[in-house]
Amino acid sequence: SSHLQKKRRAATARRQHLKSAMLQLAVTEIEKEAAAKEAEKQNYLAEHCPPLSLPGSMQELQELCKKLHAKIEAVDEERYDTEVKLQKTNKELEDLSQKLFDLKGKFKRPPLRRVRMSADAMLRALLGSKHKVCMDLRANLKQVKKEDTEKEKDLRDVGDWRKNIEEKSGMEGRKKMFEAGE
């Protein structure tokens, strides 16, 4: 059994090693992704937002302000359009999810077939390998002794109780009982 334990320990250690290696890989990938996003952001800003150089005269400053306002408006419009597109896409996704949900709801379950199964088979199916008890239903039945059947035969021979009562009722019945010495 010690060989088996060593094998199990080795498997567990290998699993742990693989898990930590995967986690390390994931962390590295996340860091790479974050760095790539940051680089993309810097490139975009360098392209679309050149460094600001403030002019000396009042008129040139006013011109610069007008340009900046125009740029801000353009960017705002772009942002608004993107938001609307996103909302539209999200709505479509929601609708599709709802359709999918509805379709799943319409799926008819097949009618279940009756299966003849012994109590043993049922317990085995429910409990699996834990099922050790044998459900022999006949074992729990009461044993009928031969004497019991003899008693029952005697009772049957007595006949119908109604007939006996009728025979013993009235004057004739009393006379018979007296003669019989009852």
Automatic annotation (TrEMBL):
Q: Show the PANTHER family listed in the entry.
A: TROPONIN I, TROPONIN I, FAST SKELETAL MUSCLE
Subunit structure as annotated in this protein's UniProt entry: Binds to actin and tropomyosin.
Q: Which SUPFAM superfamilies match?
A: Troponin coil-coiled subunits (SSF90250)
Instruction: Name the Pfam families on file.
Output: Troponin
Which species expresses this protein natively? Todus mexicanus
Q: State the Gene Ontology terms under molecular function.
A: actin binding
Question: What is this protein called in UniProt?
Answer: Troponin I, fast skeletal muscle
Q: Which GO biological process categories is it annotated with?
A: cardiac muscle contraction; skeletal muscle contraction
* Family affiliation: Belongs to the troponin I family.
Q: Name one GO cellular component term.
A: troponin complex
Instruction: Report the function annotation for this chain.
Output: Troponin I is the inhibitory subunit of troponin, the thin filament regulatory complex which confers calcium-sensitivity to striated muscle actomyosin ATPase activity.
Q: Which UniProt keywords apply?
A: Acetylation, Actin-binding, Coiled coil, Muscle protein
Which residue spans adopt a coiled-coil conformation according to this UniProt entry?
27-106
